[in-house]
Amino acid sequence: MAVADVRDMLDLPADGHPRPHKKQKVVEKRPEGITRELYALLGERAPPIAITENRYKGRPKWMSKVKVRSWQMTPFTNSARTDNLVLRHWQRQQDTVNNVPPPDGAEMDVDGKPEDEAVLTAEQEAYHFAKYNVRAQMPKRYTDEQYDRHLRSDEWTREETDYLMDLVEEFDLRWVVIADRYECQPQPSDTETGGAALVPAKQHRTMEQMKARYYAITASMLALEHPPSEMSETEFELHEKMVKFDPERERTRKELAALQLNRTADEVREEGILLEELKRIVANEQTFIAERKELYARLEVPISVGNTTMYQSSQGLSQLLQTLMQADKSKKRRSLLGTEGSGASPASQTPTQNILSGLRDSRADTPIGPTPTTATKRTAASNTHQTLKPLTPAEEVRYGVQHHDRLPSGVQFRNDRAQKLTQAKSNIQTQKLAAALAELEVPLRLVMPTERICKEFEKLIHSVNLFLDARKVAEKVESEIRVLEAAREERERKERESVQGMTKDIADVKLESEDRHIHVDGRSIGHAAESEALSDEIDDPGDSEDAPGEADADGENDVLSSTKDTPVREKEAFTTAHKRSASVHSIISNRSTKRQRK
Amino acid sequence: MNPSIPPSSAEYGGGTVLIRRDEVSAIVLDPGFSTTRAGFAGEDTPKSLIPTYYGQYSISSQQKHIFGDDIFVTPRPAFSVHNPISRDGVVEDWEMAEKVWEYSFTSRLTGTRSGNFVLNGLDDLHEDEPSREMEGVELEEKPLADSPLLMSECGWNPTKAREKTIEIAMESWGTPAFYLAKNGVLAAFAAGKASALVVDVGASNVSVTPVHDGMILKRGVQHSPLGGDYISSQIRALFKTNSPQPITITPHYLIASKAPVDAGQPPQVTYKAFPPDKTPDASYRTLLEERTLTEFKECVVQVWPGPNRLSATGPNGVANEELAKSSPGRPFEFPDGYNQVFGVDRYRVVESLFDTKAAILDPDSPFPAPVQAQAIPELIKSALNGVDVDIRPHLLANVVVTGASSLLYGFNDRLNQELIQNFPSPRVRISAPGNTAERRFGSWIGGSILASLGTFHQMWISKKEYEEHGVSIVEKRCK
Ligand SMILES: Nc1ncnc2c1ncn2[C@@H]1O[C@H](COP(=O)(O)OP(=O)(O)OP(=O)(O)O)[C@@H](O)[C@H]1O
Ligand SMILES: [Mg+2]
To answer: Cβ of A92 under 8 Å from any chain B Cβ?
Structure first.
């Protein structure tokens, strides 16, 4: 019940709200040509089909105002033709006939014959489509003399060359068509065949041969016209292109293209799969490289400053800027030269270089950057630049002269710098570092931080860092090996079981299971042995300050050997190598345990 | 489109042809083996469509000829039907070919005498030249005196035949300008392409024509007789061995009355009796049977759509033949009232277009058993092998299907499957108009487009040029 009805019942005056209109009573417009009665029969809803009338399209209103212009069948000639063929087409009648006649006596005469006038104008006015009659620009033809002097060829007779040139011109350099229509029957010329009277066999020319001949001729014609030194740039380019055309290469390219086209569906599918695989491998490689990079970035932590108080003055800020710039620069330099890190120890230089070269190897065949010798040369050069009076190295040492790329402003204590080195990124890492140092009996705080000691300390810290990371990797690999071992065990066990199932010898089964027991034992022992060896390695660095370098090298070899080839495969090889060594261990220990049992 | 604006450089080429028209009221004539199509350039279907067959009979020892659709109508005594074109698609009987073609345009397009309004201008032109005037008089007697003529030909038309064609057009019909175009090229134009691989499945032939930049590549042109007539012969062979009973096609003219029968039941029909001296020739009956067969092709015959051949097993391990059997059949009623549902057989009759081993063998057939090299996929393969390798991928991406027999149900799907199987790596794209008329008249429509192009008018061989150079000009100009 609507509000209005209620109001009505209650005799209330209809208030300002008028009864809402039945909205959207869309009155479909009755199409013309349908009577009202017929249209009413359609009911309220228009049928879903469109009612269209079958009659000619009317003129738009505005057109009725336009004066009708008559069209006329007019003859015309086409200037692209040479024979003055007269064809006729409908044309709008020229307005000039009806408009003001030109005040020319002769024209007035013509006015009497409008037909002729039309013909005239049509002919005067160039045929609209004639301008599309364009042909490829052909080089000048050679003269007899030019041909004899420059263009002779053992493979092409003059007749055939002429034929080729004609054909090229005829088909506007469409080589596909030229090669298709090429049919040259060489006429046996009396002068050449002479007494032999051999009719030369009909030669089959490939498109490449034709192209080669044509380009050779055009290039030499071009060169005859202007020597290469006087050619314009485009001409020269054209000339170069034509001279460099290599039919043999074209031929092999086409062969390859044909092969590519004639692949079977299986091959295509396989290619798709391989491409997919490649994509995956590349993606894996990327992540691997990224991981590795991160690892090494950690091994060469740039000198970071934990304390911010010193940057609160403007001086401190400029200092920060400089350090950052320096870090930036040294980074760039490192990537360029491979070596020469400002604070990098020789031990850590090698891995950087290796890694860089490894990365480059795996990415592309770009040659590795300048060798260290050139690098040292460079530094030498810069040295001479900086000091006016070159000092000999001995003198430098004596006077304590040092060269810095850029000196940070302000005063710095060496001790502070050394201190910063002992702070690693993470707390755990710092603790580990401290532990290692404690083990080496090197105090965290240097007692006598001279220049040399600081350098050595730096080296040491780097080595320790490196070593820690190497150990981490080793542990990871170790655990992988263990998993794989277990998997292999499992597999072997299954195999053996199946073999036994065939022989159905219960006693054997027992024996075997015992054996396995032993084997498993042996393996665990083997592992113990290995881990011992590892701990030996860990102990090693404690012996002397130089030792870590060796240990590092060891660890690196393991890790880095994998960068040389595709990392995935290398990794596999790496793990299998470990597996092998592990199994060797286990076999040995197997024997030893057996012996023990006996 | 405003003709005063010059077209941009991209308008012609690049796969699409943008039409800039300038009508010169040219006539386009596309003579095929089964039908001859003629019409005015610029229109979208040929106005005149007549059978290429002509009828021949003699009345009081005088030979008479019948052209056009009239040949189907009256079974006169000893009335025989002939085709001036050989099975190869090349004209055999020039005298009759000329008459048939002439009939195709005089009957509906030009009338027997040329129209007069167009001549006005010409007459005025010639007024001051008495020598030309004579020509003008001569022109009036010839059927094509004021219409340029564009004719089509098959890709393998020999030089002799081409020269004969221009001779007829110029001398018998008096056309002021003439051009002879390959029907493959025209079909490509009709599809809006300047480069394409045209597969034309006509009546007498299947042809594959590589077209590059509006020119055929002769070494790639392939053709084989596995066209509509071959399919008809396959259907006949099927009817002979049909179960539950062999089928004979009885044309309507032989039937006096018939009663409806159930599917598969023998027809109840009374035949018209023709006394031996009144019977038409056997060729007449064959022609009428052919009409029924065409109907049968339209309604029943189906191409196995693939993948794989009908005789092979499909991707899910079920034999394709089993699949075909399980699909519902299609009924067909013959003129004598016999009717039947056709099952897997409707696939068999056309399978040999793709897999010639599947051909139904019939010793009485005029067609020898086909070899695999004649199958359509093989034709396409050898056509591609005949052209430069660089354009093959482009051709494969522009396969144009034309000809009335390509209207067979499922033809395009199968062709696509076969091409994908044979050429898995480049993209294969078939373009076939869905419109029946466009498919049947593909080459005519292309001619209609070409002859109304403004830029084409420089290509015509004019009467003057013909008189100067003789018939050999056709080889030079119509490349
Ligand atoms: N809808 C259809 N489905 C299948 N086949 C058909 C259909 N319509 C006509 N045909 C067949 O197509 C053939 C005629 O094709 P078309 O008109 O293209 O040949 P044509 O151009 O005259 O001959 P050709 O190209 O060999 O010179 C006839 O054999 C006819 O039976
Ligand atoms: Mg045809």
So the answer is: no
C-alpha span between B410 and B305 (Å, rounded): 5
**Three-class secondary structure of residue A74 per DSSP:** strand
What are the tokens at A285?
A: 């490689």
CB atoms closer than 10 angstroms to residue B67: 22
Q: In whole angstroms, how large is the CA radius of gyration of chain B?
A: 24
- Cβ atoms of B430 and B377 within 8 Å: the answer is no
Paired residues of B71 in beta bridges: none
Q: Which pLDDT belongs to residue A11?
A: 73
Which carries the bigger pLDDT value, residue B300 or residue A234? B300
A466, A555 contact by CB (below 8 A):
yes
Q: CB distance from A85 to chain B under 8 Å?
A: yes
A251 → chain B, closest CA residue: B389
Could you give the ipTM of this predicted complex? Answer: 0.80
pLDDT at B158: 93
* Per-residue tokens: A109: 């005469």
A146 against A21, higher pLDDT: A146
- Can you give the three-state secondary structure of A511-535, one letter per residue? HHHHHHHHHHHHHHHHHHHHHHHHH
Q: What 8-state DSSP symbol labels residue A386?
A: H
Q: Quick check: A176 contacting B, CB < 8 Å?
A: yes
- Quote the CATH superfamily of domain B227-368: ATPase, substrate binding domain, subdomain 4 (3.90.640.10)
A129 in Cβ contact with B454 (< 8 Å)? yes
Q: How far apart are CA B221 and CA A363, in angstroms?
A: 49
What is the pLDDT of chain B when averaged over all its residues? 86
Asked whether B30 lines ligand 1 (CB < 6 A), one says no
The answer to whether residues B176 and B25 touch, using CB atoms and an 8 Å cutoff, is no
Per the listing, tokens 């050139």 go with: A374
Closest CA to A421 of A410, A430, A413, A412: A430
How far the first Cα of chain B sits from its last, in Å, is 31
How far apart (Å, rounded) are the C-alpha atoms in residues B70 and B287? Answer: 13
Q: Which of the two residues, B38 and A368, has the higher pLDDT score?
A: B38
pLDDT at A105 exceeding the cut of 50: no
Q: Which helix (H) or strand (E) holds A565?
A: none
Strands B27-31 and B430-431: unpaired
User: Tokens in use for A365?
Assistant: 């065949």
Contacts of A80 in chain B (CB under 8 A): 458
CA–CA separation, A92 and A357 (whole Å): 78
**DSSP one-letter string for B310-355:** TTSB-TTS-BHHHHHHHS--EEEE-TTS-EEEE-THHHHHHHTTT-
Q: How many residues does chain A have?
A: 598
B214 CB less than 6 Å from ligand 1? no
Instruction: Enumerate residues 524 to 583 of chain A having a beta carbon within 8 A of any beta carbon in chain B.
Output: none
- DSSP category for residue A138: P
Question: What is the model's pLDDT at position A71?
Answer: 83
